[in-house]
Amino acid sequence: FQETKSTQKVDITHIPPPASNMSTNRATIQKVLNTYQDLCLRSRTLSGKLFKLDNDANQYLAQVDSSFSNPKRSKNYKFTSKFLYQPATTTTAASSQGTITPLTPFPEETSAEIEFIANSPSRKLSLRVRLEKDGEKMLPIFELWNREHLVQCLKLGEFCSSVYMDNFFGCPQWSRDEKRVVFVAEPKEKVKQGFYSATAQEESKEDSEKQAEGFKHFSEEFLYEGDLGEKLDKKKNPQIFVYDLASNKVSSLPQFPKDIIPAFPQFLSEEDDLLLLGYKRPKNNHGLYACLNRDAHIYKLNNPKLASLPVPKDSKEEGESVKKEDDVTDLTPEYFSCVMPVLSPDGQKIAFFGRKDRQFGHAFQLSLSCIDVKTGSISEIIPNGDSFDAKLGDFRGIFGFHDEFKMECWLKDSRFLVFNSTCLGTQAFWVADMERAGQIALLSPNGNGSKNKFIMSSVVDLFEDCVLASETGASNRPRLIVSSPLKGDSVEEICTSANWTTLYEQDLFADPSLSELTTVPKEDRFDFGNFSENLGVSEHYYNDKIHYFFIQSHKNTTENGSKQPLVVVLHGGPHASFTPTFTTSRALLSEMGFNLLGINFSGSTGYGDEFCNSVLGNVGVTDVNDCKGVIDEVVAAGKADPDNIFVMGGSHGGFLVTSMMAQFPEAYKAGIALNPACDFSAILAGSDIPEWVYAETLNKDYQPAPSDDDFHSIMRASPINIAPKVKNPILFIVGAKDRRCPGVAGIHFHQVLKSVGVKTRLHLYDDNHGLAKEEHSSDIALNSVFWLLEHSK
What we know:
By secondary structure, the chain is of the alpha+beta class. Helices cover 18% and strands 29% of the residues.
């Protein structure tokens, strides 16, 4: 292992054993390495797109995009496979399935230069965003393709440095007539000048207006400019641009109101009116990632005037400003926060998720509403609250972060809408009637209310009324399923019309006779589960309130015959949830004989509005007691050895690890804390979301500086305050570039434990809060497993 710093690529074939552990022998180490390699090579993340073929056979082309990692090379591979999908000719039988025919004998590797592909509404044209190296920078290029060849391309580097393609600002969107594309991008960065820069002096001489204002007496060479926080650190000044296909030119919307950050722009009509989401720009540059509690409204831009680009050097025209009071209409003035507006196919409705009352937490229950484009009236389809029709079964409202909602969500009739939501520890998707309030139904074949509620389902794409969805379970690698075209005049009829076909299941088309072609011994290969089985997953409720999942390892007992060690997996947030989904790290733990316990403590999402907010002002008390109560119940039920329990979690989960191991020093054998929120003073001073501390500890909104009483309350809830009480070992995994929970918090806690003689290790990675870099993932997963093996019986 590397002590304190791990920034180099790890060779998983040469990791030495922990020196102090007798049970972690060479054979065990090799098994861990083999199994992890097998898991990485044989499990993939999946997404895809559907295309309608130009024939009378009602056939679809399904493009499946997959990726997997090779831990030996610390490299991620991206591939594309194509399939012909023929929906079933009869829809009367629920078991009717379509036919799938592979069109590519092998997956085709995807070019790393292509950042994003935006398909036109008809999916007959495609706009590709490609990156091209220009000196030390990678600059964007637009490539327009039809179904046969490249039509034209345009270099964007002259006026923007990057095109935004994410779940917070949206991706390039086509007009309905397929003649223009609107997108958000970062303008070309102005070169900062020092005092003695010849360029700066020349510009000062040429600019008479600046001369009249007086000599420019500040250098901007080292001027600090705020950005948009964690994972959005390269985004500072988003602007709207429009690409015209006929002229192959780009125009900009100049000088958009400075107090609004534009996102998700869409054409409202054949004219120039634009629809967009606008984040209210905070004065202190608080982060946007995974933060629903940002003032965000939906705006209509009335015939905005665009400025041609590039602007000639001798031109004095900079374009007309957008005047907020004249040209911008706020369509949602009564709302506190709105998420991702989506225009219906007929252009008459705008669907959006939102919340009217101000919320302090970073995630909360959302409503689903619909705006009538002509009248501006808003109809609430699914409200906030905890009162839902009994026929909806386990539905507890809409929960999810930005990346869980999709732009491809409307059916062709512009009446029905499909959306993802977390509910009672599962992920499922629903269909809503956007013309009748309260009319929703479970559309996904799995999830709560279905035959196998432990299979997580989410929409990947929707085209020509066919839904492409992903499914996964605790031991089930992701697969893709596709529906027949949805039909009906009610949500019930829509659900009944859906016949599901497995489009892509890993190893489905593999030749069994070639299964031995691997360097991984057969006994070390992971046995992936069947989607028709729950595979050791059971759910329970502590005090009829706290939902938890127990995932039994398929290894019956440890070598000495005692109960298997238990790893308590603590989710972050706290406004998020544990779902029994497949991950390589969880699968590796299961293969090595660890049972898993996932707890959705107070504050978790998917259990109603009141439950989600119940932890506010009580962090470190309510959530900790919930977890302790669940663990004690599992022990009392004989499912865990009280002397062989481990806790691990990241972010708020890391907060729980450090807090629980300090509050109950003898209860847990060892812990793993990834980017833990364990020092609230560090978060107040250095986080991109310092208001998190006020919300979770005081149930208050952000304050520029806390009062003495508030600061004392904050520090009493901070784990660093009781760090010397920890007695058992903790492994810290920290990202040096973490903007959410600054790395100094974990380092501080680590140093405190060292000073009081507690065994601890810290691995520091050149990474952010998610610790998602490919070159680090293997090191983190393997070090975590070896840490647990070293301290287990």
